[in-house]
């Protein structure tokens, strides 16, 4: 454990201790990094020249175009949350599925997936669906655990469905394209939605009394007017999804540019619904500034920590520990996901992404694990950080808007089955990486050991280059006496060529004679007019 010295493990343990104690994460990371950096310089374990790179790394964070997508997607989600885009959609979906047991639960899951595809934030989805659907569910006989669990779980789908903020951060930390992680997450996100729907279907069959259908006077008649209401709510969402995701997948825009398009689309939708006001813009911009500032400060603190940690060979220490795990790739992935699962009880997904992922990514790459697959797998696992009792943020959001008769214990117990479904998806993706990699376009695989670089040679121009492209009969000979002046003195002579009878060319340079500059022998394309050497006298 101390093969690379005692400072890397001490530094890692100190970081965990300060964060669990409750100090702000950004300042804990920065303080631990600088403190151990000074200790390392004094003890000779850390070269002080490393600290000279710190200003450049901080400037690199502030000028990172990928991270610029975070405020755009956050602003888009904040506008849509306050414009109440989901209200009509949830109302229509609830009436559409309300005639069957679990109809409202189906509606919440589907709307949660659609909201996740346009907002990318858990808070917006959980709060919106909780305010609208939870009172209706409780009023018409839904079990408290089931109602709160389905709302919290459906909101966390936003962490996996593009344009997820988690995927943006992971792409930056793993050094991979945001578009690749978005494509890789599409099928796992679809499987996640399918698992949720199948769970509701199973409960509605086994115990339908836990989720009764809505009364007819509430849901109304299933007619064209209701279908049109649902379509009117869905079409703007689909258009916004194309602006955000379609432009990325088609290569028409970068994630940052698509985020800007999403903000414009959200503003247009809010204006079309007559809900675009200066107050709405002010609240949305304040929320965006708060979240973006938090991310930047955490990232700066994490940069200080990782710079010192890597300078002390902490990365090699982590790799040394993880390389010894049994089971190869599968054993590594199981251990990493269990480790992140327990860290998520105490740390936010931003903190895990900025601190832990840079330490794990080199070991994953050394084991031959595709980093896009690795990133999507970690993103699925990080969903659980929102559902962990008692610290899950989705549970906190739901507690803040749930009626008083819903006890906190019921919210925590209701989250456990959905937490199990999320872990089921983690296992599926570990053993079926094709769910992620099949969506990626890979170029032809080339073995670097088979690549040969051939430099075209010029016959006789430089020593030893008489062959190559300057073989006899290519471009004629320019360096013979009487052609362009005196014999050249660059390189070695081109080898003498035998004639038809097997004798050597009589014009070959005698030993001790300065070598001519030649570009091959006469013939082939011929010799340019006026450059021919005089015919030898008989």
TrEMBL record:
Q: Which UniProt keywords apply?
A: Cell inner membrane, Cell membrane, Membrane, Transmembrane, Transmembrane helix, Transport
Bias (Low complexity) occurs at 474-511, 528-538
Membrane topology for this entry?
Answer: Multi-pass membrane protein
According to its UniProt record, where is this protein located?
Cell inner membrane
Q: Which residues form the TRAP C4-dicarboxylate transport system permease DctM subunit domain?
A: 12-434
Please give the start and end residues of each transmembrane region: 20-46, 58-80, 104-134, 146-170, 185-206, 226-252, 258-276, 288-310, 330-359, 411-436
Q: Where is this region: Disordered?
A: 472-538
Q: What quaternary structure, including any partners, is listed in this protein's UniProt entry?
A: The complex comprises the extracytoplasmic solute receptor protein and the two transmembrane proteins.
Protein name per its UniProtKB record: TRAP transporter large permease protein
Organism, scientific name: Rubellimicrobium mesophilum DSM 19309
The opening ranks of the lineage are: Bacteria, Pseudomonadati, Pseudomonadota, Alphaproteobacteria, Rhodobacterales
